[in-house]
Amino acid sequence: MAVIVEEYDPAIRFFVDALGFDLVEDSPSLTNDGRPKRWVVVRPLGATTGILLARADGEEQAAAVGNQFAGRVGLFLRVDDFDAAYARMTAAGVEFVTEPRREPYGRLAVFLDIAGNRWDLLGPT
Q: Which residues pair with 111 in a beta bridge?
């Protein structure tokens, strides 16, 4: 999974500092035509699957920043302690677009990542 972002460093800070993810890799790389880029992977604590933070390259990719899921929730962050995660993320400046609520499957609040993509923060009932 890749999240298209405007710049690497602010995206790393958001995912690591605000969401509490691990920075798994940040290595120099090259585009297919030889221009420099970085290979940046983050993942939630304890997870085995990561997210590639890909800086937009060109007009088409720049247009997708923040709209990778056509305005729908496209990613889900499941946490064991919903209240603690919500409080930490709110204190870190994460923008929640819904208030926390209870659903049959657990606690839920929708937030925006640094690019503007919608995520569900999910916790147990």
A: 96, 119
Rounded mean pLDDT, 74-79: 96
Domain that holds residue 35: 2-123
Residue 76, token pair as written in the block: 């889900």
- Looking only at the bridges linking them, the beta strands covering 2-5 and 51-55 are parallel
Give me the number of domains the chain comprises. 1
- In one-letter notation, the amino acid at residue 66 is G
Q: Residue 125: its pLDDT value, please?
A: 87
Q: What CATH number does residue 27 fall under?
A: 3.10.180.10
- Write down the residue that tokens 């790389």 correspond to: 29
Mean pLDDT of 70-83: 96
Is residue 26 within 8 A of residue 12, CB to CB? The reply is: yes
Q: Looking at residues 64-83, what average pLDDT do you find? A: 95
Rounded Cα distance between 125 and 45, Å, is 21
**Which pTM does this prediction carry?**
0.93
